[in-house]
Amino acid sequence: MDRQTVERVARAAHIKLTEEELDRYSSDLSEILTYFELLDEAPGCENWGVNPIEVADVLRDDEPRMDIDPDQLLRGMNTYEGYVRGPRLS
Fold this sequence. Notes:
This protein has a two-stranded antiparallel sheet. Helix content is about 40%, strand content about 5%. It has helices at about 5-10, 20-40, 70-75; strands spanning about 80, 85. It is mainly alpha-helical.
């Protein structure tokens, strides 16, 4: 990145930079942009996803069933017409 661009960005951000800082930031940002150019050369990932392990649909079909008899569950509870009764709210 050239020095004039670093100066313009610093002025826009209201940051005062010394001459030494302008030179250092200019070279550092140029180096960072060079690394990003290397990433542009990397192969694309259009044919594969980012997950290294293929995720398949592992859900089973939902089949309603009764494992425990409802009357047996409600036997020791305070019920009224098949509904569980709780404490009265005031």
